[in-house]
Description:
Layout: H1 12-28, H2 33-65
GO biological process, one term: DNA catabolic process
GO molecular function, one term: exodeoxyribonuclease VII activity
Pfam families: Exonuc_VII_S (PF02609)
Amino acid sequence: MKKVAEPSPPPFEQSLGELEAIVAALEKGDLTLEASLTAFERGVTLTRACRAALEGAEQRVRILTEGRPDAVPEPFTTPKAPVTAPLDHP
């Protein structure tokens, strides 16, 4: 029996763009509950794909710079999102 190849994940930039659009739609608050859950699930999938792509890129950079004293890796940190007050809905 022939194995069906899984489709390759979309490019990082495409996944990130779609993820940003999902976040904007969820923050806007106009989606139904079901649409919000579907969007959230897609967002989680995209987040995992983006994280895997970044980890793969980081590993490639480490391999390429291994043994170079002038190439000292620095951890990448992202600024923490500001904590906002919960929405008040009657």
